[in-house]
Structures are given as structure tokens and as C-alpha cells.
Known about the structure:
Blueprint: H1 2-9, H2 13-16, H3 22-32, H4 36-50, H5 57-84, H6 90-98, H7 107-127, H8 132-154, H9 159-170, H10 177-188, H11 190-197, H12 202-226, H13 239-263, H14 266-277, H15 279-299, H16 308-331, H17 335-340
Amino acid sequence: MLSVIMLHVTAGFVSIGYRHRLSEVLIFVNCASRFAVPLFVVLSAFYLSLNRGNLRPLAFYRRTLGRLALPYLIYTALYGLAAHGAGFGWKQMLLSLLTPSAGYHLWFIKLLLVFYLVHPFLNRWFSDRRRPELWTTQAFLVQLGYLVALEHFRNASGYLACGLDLINKIFPLPGFIGYIMAGYLLARYGERSDRILQKTWLLPAAVGIWLAATAAMWAYWTVPIRGGTLFGGIARPSLAHDTLAPLMSLAALAAMLAAFDRSMNAALRRLFHPFGLHSYGVYLTHVFFLGLAVSALGAGGWLGPEDWTFYLLQFCLAAFLSLQAARWLAKVPWGVGKYLA
């Protein structure tokens, strides 16, 4: 969850381009944080597949969908009203729910809703496969092919580009099918995964792959941006992310599991545990607090985009305030408050 916040804090280079030497650092940190969302999908699939009761669709839907759909509905309304005011009517609300556009981060909640709808059937199908590792590899190839095709046709004009973009917003699952299968595979081969995590070579190898993928993505974006090209002007800007993110995400997962399993002390667990416990609430609210932090820090004119503390304070304020908001909402003694959190 902290990596997601860092991803959004450093995303300014997409719109402002190269303004100072700090831009290169921001791009590198942004690239290094790109494992966050894929890893969230992997872990979601992993934990859902551990409970065999989740294979019963109706019982699974009754237990889970309300906790996803109601916050999605409420926060779509809140972010839509914040952005458009009274002009955000019911038609805009329906469109924003169908194609998550009220807040730039709400697309992920829509992805989770779609994933939860298909999970009982997809996991049952995967459980019946005799060679799950082969199917997982094929899923990653399908994912990559889908994203590359989407990127290719997105630059085209006319109805085809608009239609593909609309389909991807309504049903984004193909772009993450490899991560979902990877989560299922980890759950299926849990004992084998534990044995691999004990290998002494795993941590340095995983960190090396993570950093190498980050450096390649950084170079792909930094070279043209340093030359004055905006992110949107790069030829196929998402190609580096779509190609390298799976490798980076799985390497980051292996590195963190290996490191935390060996050396994570009680103090660090107390620090990180609340962000895992309240990850959904932190995700939904952090964009609001990030906007407040940017406005507050820039209001006095004593901090600006050229100062590295500007980004550090954004991150700290957004993380702290969104966590406190999620904790407070969890204590509200009425049902809607629980759903909000």
C-alpha cells in the first residue's frame, strides 16, 4: 500500500516532463514502485484461493461483493462531486461507475469487482489443470499480447480505439490475468514456495532482477523525457511497463518475502501491519489526502516541485492521514461506516 502511495506521489513526471535533475530520481522511484498494483492482484488471488468455500459463487458473493461495491459507489460519488460539483448528475455517476473515471485510482476497485465476480469459476477451472505452471506462463503471454495490442490500437483514430478503450475500462481482467494465475499458483504450491524462500541466493537474485527491470524501464522513459518529450509523446510509452512489470513484480515479491522472513523485527511489523489491515480504506482515501498535502505544501511558496522534501512530505502526510481516516471509519458504530472503511 505504501508503494501505491509512492507511485502516485512521483507520477508528476507524466504531465510535466523534465524540469530539473530531480525528475530523473522521481522517474526511478516511480519505476521501482510499479510492482505495487500487480502484487496486490497476486496476493488477492492467493488469499482468495486458500479458502475452498470461495468456490461457491452465491455464498462468496454475499460475503464479499457488498464490501467492495458500496465503497466503490460512495467514493465514486464523493470524488465526482469534488471534481465537478453540482454538475455531477446521475448520468455522470452511472458512466463513472461503468468506466471508473471519478477518481484516477478507482479503476483498481472496478478491477477487483470484476475479479471477484469471476473468481469462483476461474479458480475452479485452474484447480483442475494438471500443469498449472504452464497455464500460468500462457496467461502471462496472453496478458502481454492483450496490453501490447491495446497500446497499438489506442493510437489509432476512430471507433476502434474508442471501442477497445471502453471494453478495457468495463472489463479490465485480461490485462491482469497473468498476475491472477500467479496468485493461484503460489497457493497451490505453497510448500514448494516455502522451500525456495529458504534458499540463500534468492534475496540477492530477486533484488538484482528487480533493480535491473527498474533501470530498464527508467532508461526507456528518461532518455526521451530528458530530451524534452512529454510522457504521452513517447512512442508506445506503456510498452516498457507492460513487458517488465511482471518480472519486476514477481522479483519484488520474492525479495520482500525472503527479507521479511529472515529479519523483519517486531517494530517493523507494528509499523507495516496497519497498512495491510486497512489497505482498502487507505487506497480509497489516500488520493484525497494527497491532494490536500500538495495544496498545503505549495500554498506558502516555500516548497515546490524542485525540492525533494516536497515529495517526501506528500508521501508522509498522505500515508499518515489516510491510515488515520481508515482507522476512524472502522470504529464508526454503524454499518455504512464499516463499509466505508
